[in-house]
């Protein structure tokens, strides 16, 4: 039995990150019909984190529409390994090579399960229902605590063999830059993520207003107030993003770059210098002219995208793009 007004078969979607585990039943038009949410247990062992996932799935299975669910799509913080069905999220230390796909498949009675990285899921969502809809070649990015991404090429999502393709956050754009936790140097994420925007501003002498946490949002507020150090930190982040986008455009020829995640809420403070820097890096005729636009789906992108990844991977229903 499907919920009233549901279109086509349903996909159970999971969006798994370092702070929350979200679930939903998603229909063929991308509507979230039933939702469930649990916090990700901090610093917990793998079994405890999986128990929270199981609670989300149990809540979805208790919904009247569950019999209409034909598959499960998972978008998880990474790295993920879709080939082996395992995940090792940097921000979920209890999971290292954790066999998430078989555990989820067991919890849902054997339904097919499709896994992808959260950047790939966000890309699938924005291509299906958001800012990349109608574009055959796109890069979509999440700029938040980390920097992730995904690619649409030739009209199709390109997850890659392990589900991590398009992970632009770990392209090096400063060859002698700061060491990145991934083991490389000068990665886009090390420069453009929210915590690193705040870190760089603090190192340069910026201080948040009294009673305010030193976050990228606080740096943005100071920049809007005319603080030169705060403005410079955002400009540097925008430059790193522009260099990564230009490298991607040069390699695979994209038409649009969609930027989502918490840092994108800075609006013109991020997008204006990003577009300006992009003209300096994307100089070849086929790479120049990439549109840079904000994402549309916000916090629902992970769930919509997880469903889209499963729909495409299993041929469940047309994604309408």
3D structure, described in words:
By secondary structure, this protein is of the alpha/beta class. It has 2 domains: 10-117 and 300-314, Nucleotidyltransferase, domain 5, CATH 3.30.420.40; 131-295, ATPase, nucleotide binding domain (Nucleotidyltransferase, domain 5), CATH 3.30.420.40. It contains 9 helices and 12 strands. The chain has helices at residues 46-61, 100-107, 118-129, 188-192, 194-203, 216-224, 228-252, 268-281, 301-314, and strands spanning 10-16, 20-26, 32-39, 69-76, 80-81, 86-87, 113-117, 138-143, 147-153, 156-157, 256-260, 291-294. The chain has a 5-stranded mixed sheet, sandwiched between helices. Strand 9 (147-153) and strand 10 form a beta hairpin. Helix 7 (228-252) crosses helix 8. The longest helix has 25 residues, at 228-252. The protein starts with 9 loop residues before the first strand and ends in a 7-residue tail after the last helix. Keywords: Kinase, Transferase. InterPro entries: ATPase_NBD (IPR043129), ROK (IPR000600), ROK_cs (IPR049874).
CATH superfamily of the largest domain: ATPase, nucleotide binding domain
Strand content: 15-25%
Largest sheet: 5 strands, mixed
Q: From the 3D structure, determine the CATH topology of the largest domain.
A: Nucleotidyltransferase, domain 5
Low-confidence stretches: none
Strand order of the largest sheet: 3-2-1-4-7
* Net shape: globular
CATH C-level class of the largest domain: Alpha Beta
Structural class: alpha/beta
Mean pLDDT level:
93
Strand count = 12
Distance between the termini: 28 Å
Oligomeric grouping of the chains? single chain
- Tell me what the CATH architecture of the largest domain is: 2-Layer Sandwich
Q: Give the SSE string.
A: EEEHEEEHEHEEEHHHHEHEH
Q: How many separate domains?
A: 2
Organism: Actinacidiphila guanduensis
Protein name: Glucokinase
InterPro entries: ATPase_NBD, ROK, ROK_cs
Pfam families: ROK
């Amino acid at each position: 039995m499907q919920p009233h007004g549901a279109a086509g078969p349903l996909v159970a979607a999971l969006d798994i990150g370092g702070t929350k585990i979200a679930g939903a039943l998603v229909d063929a038009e991308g509507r979230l019909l039933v939702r469930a949410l649990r916090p990700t247990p901090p610093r917990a062992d793998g079994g405890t984190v999986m128990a929270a996932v199981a609670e989300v799935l149990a809540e979805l299975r208790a919904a009247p529409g569950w019999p209409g669910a034909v598959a499960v799509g998972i978008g998880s913080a990474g790295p993920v390994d879709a080939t082996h069905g395992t995940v090792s999220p940097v921000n979920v230390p209890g999971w290292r090579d954790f066999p998430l796909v078989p555990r989820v498949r067991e919890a849902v009675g054997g339904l097919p399960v499709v896994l992808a990285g959260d950047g790939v899921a966000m890309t699938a969502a924005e291509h299906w229902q958001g800012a990349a809809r109608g574009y055959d070649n796109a890069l979509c990015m999440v700029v938040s605590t980390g920097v992730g991404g995904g690619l649409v090429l030739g009209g199709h999502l390109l997850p890659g063999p392990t589900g991590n393709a398009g992970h632009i956050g770990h392209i090096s754009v400063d060859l002698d830059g700061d060491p990145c936790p991934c083991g490389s140097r000068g990665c886009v994420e090390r420069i453009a993520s929210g915590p690193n925007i705040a870190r760089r501003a603090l190192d340069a002498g910026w201080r948040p207003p009294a009673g305010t946490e030193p976050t990228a949002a606080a740096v943005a507020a100071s920049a809007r107030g005319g603080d030169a150090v705060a403005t410079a930190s955002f400009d540097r982040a925008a430059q790193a993003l522009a260099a990564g986008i230009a490298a991607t455009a040069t390699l695979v020829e994209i038409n649009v770059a969609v930027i989502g995640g918490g840092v994108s809420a800075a609006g013109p403070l991020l997008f204006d210098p990003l577009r300006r820097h992009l003209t300096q890096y994307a100089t070849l005729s086929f790479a120049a002219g990439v549109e840079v636009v904000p994402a549309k789906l916000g916090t629902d992108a992970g769930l919509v995208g997880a469903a889209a990844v499963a729909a495409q991977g299993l041929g469940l229903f047309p994604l309408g793009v």
